[in-house]
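Private note to self, pasted from the team thread so I don't lose it. Backbone tokens:
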């Protein structure tokens, strides 16, 4: 997809350069570089996720952000769920982290309520 977009931009720029507006080519090059930067940023975060599993008396949380991946195992009886401003925080012995970063505000609040319910309604 990126190659096709770059080809279109360079083709249009070359057409204008042949018509005498040669100063278009440097700007077409800058546009291609901007597109490349946008694709790199998108690609780094395209596979970000948060996975939460509650089974067997254990709460397992796996968070992938860009190239970092963290996995937490917590005792559900000792976990608290709370909102700090617009952030949903999960806190357990030796671990505190944010969840629901990929949700909008209303969905984050609904997710916090559901998580509290499933953990036995423990709050901060």
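Design output:
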């Amino acid at each position: 997809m990126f190659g096709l977009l770059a080809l279109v931009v360079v083709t249009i720029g070359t057409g204008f350069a042949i018509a005498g507006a040669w100063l278009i080519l440097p700007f077409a090059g800058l546009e291609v570089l901007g597109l490349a930067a946008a694709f790199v940023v998108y690609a780094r975060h395209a596979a970000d996720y948060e996975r939460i599993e509650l089974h067997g008396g254990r709460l397992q949380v796996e968070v992938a952000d860009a190239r970092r991946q963290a996995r937490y195992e917590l005792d559900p009886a000792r976990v608290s769920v709370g909102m700090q401003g617009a952030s949903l925080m999960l806190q357990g012995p030796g671990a505190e982290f944010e969840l629901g970063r990929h949700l909008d505000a209303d969905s984050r609040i609904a997710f916090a309520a559901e998580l509290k319910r499933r953990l036995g309604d423990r709050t901060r």
